[in-house]
Amino acid sequence: MTAHAPAVPHQRPSMPEELLTVPQVMARLQLGRSAVYGLLRTRQLASITLGRARRIPTHALTDFIRTRLDQEAA
C-alpha cells in the first residue's frame, strides 16, 4: 500500500496586490499631499517603502476607508 499526500483543495491563484503612489491616494481620497503623508506617518494608512518610493497597497486604502466609515457610524 502506498501513502498518498492529502488532497489539497484547488485554490484560485491570487491576484497580485496593486500598489498605489501617494498622488494616486491623494486623488482617490481628494486630500492634499501633507494630509496623506500625515496618515502614513501616524500609521492610520499602511504603506511599504521600496527604495525611496512609498507605496500604499489597495487593501490598506480599503481598510482605512472601512475603518473611518465604522468610526463615523459609531
Which key phrases capture this entry?
three-stranded antiparallel sheet, alpha+beta, Helix-turn-helix domain-containing protein, globular, HTH_17, 74 residues, 3 helices
- Reading side by side through the largest sheet, how are the strands ordered? 1-3-2
Portion in beta strands: 5-15%
- Which structural class best describes the helix and strand composition? alpha+beta
Cα radius of gyration in angstroms: 19 Å
Runs with pLDDT <50, length 5+?
A: none
Task: Specify the biggest β-sheet.
Answer: 3 strands, antiparallel
Coarse morphology = globular
Please give the alpha-carbon distance between the first and last residues: 60 Å
List the domain count as a whole number.
1
Pattern of helices and strands = EHHEEH
> Total number of helical segments?
3
Number of beta strands: 3
| Average pLDDT number | 88
The share of residues in helices is 40-55%
Pfam family, one: HTH_17
InterPro entries: HTH_17
Protein name: Helix-turn-helix domain-containing protein
Domain Helix-turn-helix: 19-68
